[in-house]
Amino acid sequence: MLIEKVLNNNVVITRNENGQEVVIMGRGLGFRMTAGKPVDQRKIEKIFTIDNNNEVDNRYRELVEAIPHEILLVTEQIIASAGRLLEGQLHPGIRVSLADHIHCAIERCIQGKCVKNAMLWEIKKFYGSEFSVGADAIVKIKQASGIQLNEDEAGFIALHLVNAQLNDDMHNTMDVTRLIHDIVSLIKYDLRIEMDENTVSYQRLMTHLRFFAHRLIHSDTVKSDDDSLFVSVRQEYPESFACVGKIYLYVEKQLSHYMTKEEMMFLTIHVERVRREHQIG
């Protein structure tokens, strides 16, 4: 492969055998190199194919010119780890948003301007798996850059991962997190229970609430023409259904959204599982 453009000492642009534009990273890969010279295969650490008609790819191409290559590489390591440990697919845009965030976080830390994460408690509670990846990311970032970011940044990284899972922006994800917090608080207060975060029923409730809250924020609903199961659930789980009735009123007041019978039914089932597990425990 021949170099088409040197972006910096560690990143060059070339083309693959199919004629597609390719970004190649590696320490010293672009040092004293010019267009037309062959790529030093021994120095290659990461290769990315760029689609110029893809907005995310174009943003990433701009990013590689502005961000140190070790930050781009550690971002890839974090994304790979998240892909192995988290459920579902991560939106490709995470490569851009997370690298940009980590770069800015490091710059702020160097300047002594660390940002407090006001939602750290909620993130730990409701996005435990994502926070674990975020905490591990802080270790990886220290190894790559020598900069020690704090626990607040682990929480911000976790939110970026949640964004990528939901394919949403940070503002909406924070709204989703607040909504989950309020619903969980209502469940605990109404049923007078404490939830064991290590149980399967709790994890299933959190997963359900995450996507339920996401739909609410986007005014999306789940509907069904079959009322028979709804009636059965209402009769079989009266305490949990009554609790969900209070959630219905809260959602109506806060978001002007009227929960469908389908939404109430599924939430009742999840609440009932948590309630029963508390009784057994």
TrEMBL record:
Task: Kindly give the Gene3D superfamilies that the UniProt entry links to this protein.
Answer: CAT RNA-binding domain (2.30.24.10), PRD domain (1.10.1790.10)
Q: Tell me, what is one Gene Ontology molecular-function annotation carried by this entry?
A: RNA binding
Q: Which SUPFAM superfamilies match?
A: PTS-regulatory domain, PRD, SacY-like RNA-binding domain
* Pfam families named among the record's database cross-references: CAT_RBD, PRD
Which UniProt keywords are given for this protein, alphabetically ordered?
Answer: Repeat
Record GO biological process: regulation of DNA-templated transcription
Q: Where is the PRD domain?
A: 66-170, 171-281
Record protein name field: Transcription antiterminator LicT
The root-end lineage is:
Bacteria, Pseudomonadati, Pseudomonadota, Gammaproteobacteria, Vibrionales
